Known about the structure:
Keywords: Signal. This protein has 2 helices and 9 strands. It is an alpha+beta fold. The chain has one domain (2-184). Strands 1, 2, 3, 4, 5, 6, 7, 8 and 9 form a 9-stranded mixed beta sheet that branches. The protein is globular.
Amino acid sequence: MRKIVYLLIFVLSVSACVQDGLNPDLKRLSPEVIEAREWLQQNQEAMDLKALQTKSDRLDPKFLTREFNWERALILIDSKNRTAIEIPVHYPNGMMFGVTRNKKPPKSVRTSLVLVKKQEKEYAPYFLKINSEDTEHIFSANNFHLIGYLNIPNNFSGEFNLYNWDESWIGTTVYSNGQPVRSRFPKDQSIE
């Protein structure tokens, strides 16, 4: 019983850590973005609880503190004709980010929450973390829309890394000059 009480206290503290960077004036947001935001607000506590049950022991809960900037959200249509909402994410307490091989860690990682619409008012959440092959590259919040979930510029070389809500790694696509050249996935994960 004591374990359950501690778990609930932890869930509530993690849930409280997610900040919503939105001014009170919701009228400026599109209906698609408002719907996605409402879905996240309604489901966040359950996703946080599940994340606590499934997350890696290496993940410090401070890395689950995230701020979403809904005013810069992008509405996208993917190759399967699904709507996806991409929202810039900021980690005020730092972010866990794996680096493969003997690579130097990137100076800057561009992060977004991607909510892929599965059905009416139902979404699949993913975190997209993009890093450039140039470890000195700095991503700017002002040009968030220039590179993202469905926008890979012809001159981009680097990695698109996808993570679940609990920050567990799903897979990576490596790009060279805007073209995918290889992908990596966890060894124990099947590809859908």
